[in-house]
Amino acid sequence: MNLLQPWMLIALPLVLLPILIHLLNRRRFATRPWAAMMFLIEANQSARGHARLRRWLVLALRTAVVGALLFAATRPVATSVFGFQLSGTADTTILLVDRSPSMQQSVSPELTKLESVQIQMHDTFARSHSGKWVWIDCATPNAETFSGFDELLRAMPQGPLDASSNFPAMLKATSDYLHDNPSGSADVWLWSDLRESDWSSNEAEWSAVRESLKRIPRSVRFRLVSLLDKGALNEAVRVSDVRQERTNEGNFLVMTIHVSVNHSVESVKTLPLEIELSGNRFKSEVSLNRNEATLMNHRIPLASEVRGGWGRVSILADTNRADNEYFFVFKEPRPSKIMIVGNRNEVTEPLAIGCEISPDGMTKNEVQWVSSTDVRNISFGQLSLLIWTTELPDDEARKTLRQFLAQGGQVLFFPPDSLNAAESLQGTESFLGAKWNGWVSNDRRVMIEHWRGDQDLLAATSSGVGLPLEEIQVQGYAQLSGEVIPLATLSGGAPCLARLATDAGGVYFCTLSLSKEHSNLAENGVILYAILQRAIQQGREANRDVEYWTAGQSSLVQSLPWEKIAGRDNLLSNQFPFQSGVYREKNGTDFESEEATSGRLIAVNRPITEDQTEVVSNERIRELFDGLSFTQIDATETQASDLMQELWRILLIAMIIAMLLEAILSLPKTIVRQGEL
Questions:
Q1: Is the pLDDT of residue 640 over 50?
Q2: Most CB atoms closer than 10 Å: which of 23, 144, 322, 409?
Q3: Are 198 and 192 in contact (CB under 8 A)?
Q4: What is the 3-state secondary structure (H, E, C) of 80-138?
C-alpha cells in the first residue's frame, strides 16, 4: 500500500482531539457530596459498568472517525483486493510481460491483450514509489534496471513479438538478478494469458527454477495477472512443403496450405485466401470442415525465368492478426555435389549410381571421384556428401574433413578393399576415435537384427512404411571400434551402420562391403539408395539458398546481420529474429554493395505451438510457485481495470459506519414509567 500524499501524516496527532475534549469536558463539573443523591447512586450501582463501557466505545469511535478522515487525506492506494493484505512498497519491482502472438488477440474493438496490459501497467505503477525498477523482456531474458517507472516506460519495448515467451528462462533471469542484488524486498509482477506454449509447465527445469527462487536472501512476492481468453473465434493459417517444380507442363510453385480454427464449424465453410508472390497477389479459397482445412499441393504457375522468390499466404483479419499470415521462400533445386574418395571399380560403382539420380527423377546430381591425397586441396562449395572408400584419412585430410563437418557436411565411410583381403590394420589411422579393426567372414549368412526406424538414415518413410532391412544378407563385414552410436546391428550385436557424435555435420560408418561376395547391399539397391539420398539431403540442408526459421530461435539470433524484404514496418534490425517476415542474409561488411545482399533468403514465422490454445490450469500454476509468496489475479481485459486503487471510498464508508454506531451509543436511556399501585 502506498500514500500519494504522505505529508498529510503530520496532522496525525489530531486523532487525540476527541480524547482532549473528553478530558476538558470532565473538568467543567466539580463533584459535591449530596445526601439525597447518595441513595440514587447506590440504586444505579449495578449499571455503572455498562455505562462506562458505552462511554469508552463512543470515545473510541469518535477517535476512529477523525483518524479515518486524516488517513483518507493521505490518499492511500493498494493493489487489487484489499491491497494484498495491505503489503508495503517493495524496494525493487520486477516486471515480466508476455508479448507472444497469443497476446495480440483482441479483447475489445479497440484493445488487444497486450495493449490492455500496457494500460494496466501505467495505471498501476504511475503512482507507485518503488526504489528500483527491473524489466526482463521475453525476447532476450536479461535484466535491465531503471531508477523510476517513467524511465522504464520510455525504454521498454512496446510492440508484440511473433516468438513464444519463455517464462522458465524469464524467472531464472529474475532469480539470478535477485541473487546478485540481495537488498530489501522485491515484488515480481507477471502478465500472461497462461498459454502452455509460453510456460512449458511440464518441463523439468521448473523444479530448478523454483528451488533457486526459494533460496533468494530477501522477501519476494510474486503477483501473476492472468488474462484469460473469452472464447473469441479465431482462425490461423500455416504453409508447408513449399517447392519449385519445373516439369513438361511448365514452371510451378507448389505448396500445402493449412487453416485451423479454435471452434467447430457445423457446415462446410469457404474461407478466402490471398497469396502474395514477390509482390504479385493471387486469390484462392479453402473449404473449412469442422475445425481445420488443408489445401494440398496447391500449384501456382511461374514464369519460365523464375528460379526463386518469396511470398506470404494470408486470411481475413479476425480476433488475432498475429496468426493471419505466413511467409515462405523458395528456390529452384539444383543438383547436389557428391565426392567419392577411392578407386572407381565394379564394387564402388553402385555408389555413383545411387548418388546421381535424385528422388524426384528430374535432377541428376554431380558425382566426382578423387584420391585421398587430393582431398586436402578441394573446395567444398556446394558439396553435400563425401563418401570415403579407402583407408581412413591421415592428419592433413582429417583437418579438411573437420572443416567440412563444421559447415554441416556429411561423411560416409565404407570398408576399404584391404580389409577384404584379411590384412591386419591394427595400426591404421582413426577418425574421431573410430577405426577399422579387421574383417569377419562367416560361413553362413548373417542378417540385420536390429535397427533404428524412428530417425536418421534408416527411418521409416513419411507414410510410415519401414525400410526392408530384413532382406539384407551378409557373409562378411568389417569390425569397427570406438565410441559409435549403432543405427543397425547384425546378429550377435556387431554394428552394421553407426554414427559418431559430432557438434555439426554427420559422420557415418557402414561395415558392409558392396562386393557381391560379402553382402547383397548393392544388389538390393533400395537400402543403399535410401542411405545415400538421405545423407545427401542432410548435407543439402547446410547449403540451402533458402531457410525457414521459427521466431525467437536461439541459433537465429546469432545469424545477424540481415536486411528486411517483407514484414512489419518500423522494425529495428535486432528485432528481426523475433518478428515474422522475409529477410536476406548480409554476407559482407559493406552492406550497401550487391555482394553484401547476396545471401540466403530466410522466412521467419511464429512457432507452431502458438496455434495451439492449451492453457495452463490455475492448479498447475500454484504448483509451479509452490513454497513462494504468490498471488494470482484473474484480470478483466475488456475493462483494462486498474490494479492499484485508492482506498478513500473504503475509509469514507468506515467513517459513516463509525458515526452511526456513535450516534446509537449516545442515545439517552429510555425510562419506563411504573403505574400507580
A1: no
A2: 409
A3: yes
A4: CCHHHHHCCCCCEEEEEECCCHHHHEECCCCCEHHHHHHHHHHHHHCCCCCCEEEEECC
Residue type, 41: I
Look at 22 and 520; give whichever has higher pLDDT.
520
Q: How many of the other CB atoms lie within 10 Å of CB of 191? A: 24
Which ranges of 370-453 does DSSP label H, i.e. alpha helix?
395-406, 417-420
From residue 216, alpha-carbon distances to 178, 209, 466 in Å are: 7, 11, 53
Task: Please give the Cα distance from 654 to 659 (Å, whole number).
Answer: 9
Q: Report the 10 Å Cβ neighbour count for 524.
A: 15
pLDDT at 130: 75
For the chain, helix (H) and strand (E) counts, in that order, are 17, 27
At 646, is the secondary structure helix, strand, or coil?
strand
**Which amino acid belongs to residue 103?**
M
Within 8 A by CB and 6+ apart from 433, the residues are 482, 483, 500
Secondary structure letter of residue 570 according to DSSP? S
**Measured between alpha carbons, how far is 489 from 496 in angstroms, rounded to an integer?**
5
163 close to 552: Cβ distance less than 8 angstroms = yes
CB atoms within 10 A of CB 535: 24
Which residues face 277 on adjacent strands? 280, 311
Residues 6+ positions from 266 with CB-CB distance below 8 Å: none
Distances (CA, A) of 442 to 149, 239, 473, 519, 545: 79, 52, 11, 11, 47
Instruction: Specify the pTM.
Output: 0.66
Which grid coordinates belong to 228?
484469460
* DSSP state for residue 309 in the 8-state scheme: E
DSSP 442: E
Q: How is the chain split among helix, strand and coil, in percent rounded to 5?
A: 30, 30, 35
* Residue with the three cell numbers 578441394: 378
pLDDT tens track for 28-75: 656 666 666 666 666 555 556 666 677 677 777 777 777 777 666 665
Burial 553-576 (b: 16+ CB within 10 A, else e): eeebbebebbebbbbeeeeeeebb
